[in-house]
Each structure stands twice: as C-alpha cells, then as structure tokens.
Amino acid sequence: MKRILALISVLTVIGLFLIPSGVAFADQVYHTERLPLHVTEEGAAAGYTLRNGMVVNIHANGPNNFAIEEYILNGAKPNTTYIICRQFSDAELWYGPMPIGGERLLPAEGNSITTDKNGNGRCTIKLTPEYLAPVYPRTFHPKFVLIVGGHPDPEEPWAWIDGTRAYETEYTEATLDW
Fold first, then answer.
1. Does the residue 7 lie in any domain?
2. Element of type H or E holding 14
3. 11-57 confidence digits (pLDDT tens)
4. Cα dist from 157 to 43, 105, 119, 154, 164, whole Å
5. Cβ atoms of residues 80 and 115 within 8 Å
6. Is residue 16 in a domain?
7. Burial (CB count <10 Å: 0-12, 13-18, 19+), residue 61
8. Facing residues of 148 across strands?
9. Strand runs (DSSP E) across the chain, as ranges?
10. For the domain that residue 140 is a member of, what is the CATH number?
11. Tens of pLDDT, residues 63-98
C-alpha cells in the first residue's frame, strides 16, 4: 500500500511539471468582468428600453489582443445604431486633462452596435498593446456608454458630444499590468 501511495505521489509531481505554465497562472491583477448596462434617465425619457445588456471586459493580456470588450444588447430599441463610448472618472488619460467625473466621452475607435428588428445587437472590440501603450502602466476607472446620435466635438475631435445617452454601466476599476 505504501508503494502505491508513493507511486501516485511521484506521478502527481511529474504531471504538474508537464502542465504549461500559462495554464497554471491566470492574470492576478485584473480579471474578466461582466458589467450590466442600464437605461439612463435621459434614455428612458427618450423611449429607450432594455431587457438585458452588458459589457464583458476581458483582460486577455496577450501580444495581439491585450484587452477585449464584448458589448451585448437584448431587447433594446430596434433598428437603432448606438455609438460605443468610454467615460473616465480619472483626471488624465490618452488626450490630456479631462475633468473629474468625466464630461468627455471617448468613442471606441469608431465602433458601434446596430440592433436588429428585435432590439438585439453585439459588438466586439479588440484592444492591442500598442493602442494601450500610452496609458501603461495604470489603474483607471472607465464606464461604458452607448449614445444615439451626436458627433465629434469640433474643438476636440477625439471627444463625442450631443446625442442621447441611452445606456451605460457603472464605473469600474481596470488595471493595465503587462
């Protein structure tokens, strides 16, 4: 019996050495997060509804896709295009000073979601390490906002203005930790 237990112990240790280290160690700083979208007061007043919606924020930490954002709408206003924006509570990010509380909405690299006749839509945004390099390393606090209408600010073309804020998440904490 002692020999069998010793053999099992040795085989277990050998098996642990055969497992690739990438499988054994997940990112310990930022984990995948599911953030529920909710209808804003402005969106409700404009007639926007939402059965279910979310942003899945994935910290892939890879050489090609450092982060992946999955936007999902279910039962939203049908046949509508929503501009995907990020709003930051932090004072400075990519484009220099921004007011605390985040009045600036930053469009997500020209991405949008268009819902079908049932109000369902989906969009995946993949962020490369090169795109995030200007803000690495950093912990910041984004919220995700879906806007209908609006346009780039003529004075600050990286910011989105006007339009109706239909849906948004709460602020969350994200850490870039290469």
1. no
2. helix 2-18
3. 555 555 555 544 434 445 556 899 999 999 999 999 999 999 999 98
4. 24, 11, 30, 5, 18
5. yes
6. no
7. middle
8. 164
9. 33-36, 38-39, 52-58, 67-74, 81-88, 92-93, 96-97, 105-114, 121-127, 138-140, 142-148, 151-152, 160-161, 164-168, 174-176
10. 2.60.40
11. 667 778 899 999 999 999 999 988 877 655 544 444
Residues in the chain: 178
Can you read off the two tokens belonging to residue 173? 């904490």
Supply the pTM of this predicted model. Answer: 0.73
Nearest to 102 by CA among 88, 116, 86: 88
Q: Is 32 helix (H, G, I), strand (E, B) or coil?
A: coil
DSSP track, 87-133: EE-SSEETTEE--TT---EEEEEEEEEE--TTS-EEEEEEE-HHHHG
Give the chain's domain count: 1
Nearest in space to 86 (alpha carbons), one of 178, 165, 176: 165
Calculate the alpha carbon distances from 160 to 84, 87, 102, 106, 149 in Å.
10, 10, 12, 6, 10
Q: 55 lies in a domain?
A: yes
